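Next comes this protein.

***
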Amino acid sequence: MRAEDLEALREDMLAVIAACAFALRGTIGKSALDDRVMRAMGKVPRHEFVPIELQPYAYANIPLPIGFEKTISQPFIVALMTDLLDIKPQDSVLEIGTGLGYQAAILAHLARKVYSIEIIEELGQEAKQRLRQQRCSNVELRIADGYHGWSEHAPFDKVIVTAAPDLIPPPLIHQLKTGGKMVIPAGLPDAQKLILAEKRANGRMTTKEILSVRFSQLEGTGSGL
């Protein structure tokens, strides 16, 4: 596809994200997503993070398969989850579930450092290559079981999880800074909710259900799968 065609599709995607946010303003508590998030969504070439045969559909507001029964989330959900984290330029962010690296590339535009974990080696290696091509030099990627987080680089200012456990994994709670935020889909496969969790000064987590979602289940030794 020609560069100008892709640019037009990316502009359409941003318009759809904005329309979705406005339509769900009563649910998400705001009528528009943060400007920094929208700029990042406009900069990152989503077509570079999907299988080549699906590039014509890269900017549609739908999830797309990336292999191994995994998907890249629809653009609005990527934007919403990123917005809910309220990422600051100095933040260190942990991502669980790299996939092909699209969410990590968005985070890379917003945070000081992104640590991303992918359990499927083939996807992780492919993500490394795609992120390198996009010069996302502040992303460090690891092939591992994301349920256990990445203790060597903890604590994190923000944590984002792109696969759904039944319950929030305790290691991820432990590795979140006091005052930090986590966005995670959780629940049984047919009853998942997108949750915004915040860690209080006493170490306790407060949680808020944002909306119903459907994500792949979180794989790993700690998730009961």
